[in-house]
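Let's do one together. I've listed all components of the complex below, 166 residues spread over two lines.
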Amino acid sequence: GDIAAGKTKSATCMACHGANGISQIPMYPNLAGQKEQYLALQLKAFRSGERKNMVMAPMVAGLSDADIENLAAYYASLDPSGK
Amino acid sequence: GDIAAGKTKSATCMACHGANGISQIPMYPNLAGQKEQYLALQLKAFRSGERKNMVMAPMVAGLSDADIENLAAYYASLDPSGK
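Okay, and this is what the predicted structure of the assembly comes out as:
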């Protein structure tokens, strides 16, 4: 995935998952430093409906495979401690 | 949740999610430093079948609510950078 393109696409994600990938909401996960492959698999699972989530489903509905790979690369690249 | 009790219970989790909560397997998530509430919600979702996963389902089948709260507290307490 392309980290810079993922960063651009991440504007939608920031309100819940934090500008630095550290969630602002206890029931939502941190994404910073998460495994790239895991992130991509989960975004695809939300998109296909395999992983059902009423918040995430509309967020990912318009994402292409490339968007997902880029977002996964971006969040995986962030410092997991939020710095 | 009780961090020490969660650590004891985590023996089963370590093979995939790492002794320090950093996954050894790219398709599986890091757990170290993840939000406690998110971790508990996901373990409960695997247990109820709301989140379907053939690997996780048998892992969580025998967990009580207290076990889940303890595991969530333990993994949330770990350093997200794996140190």
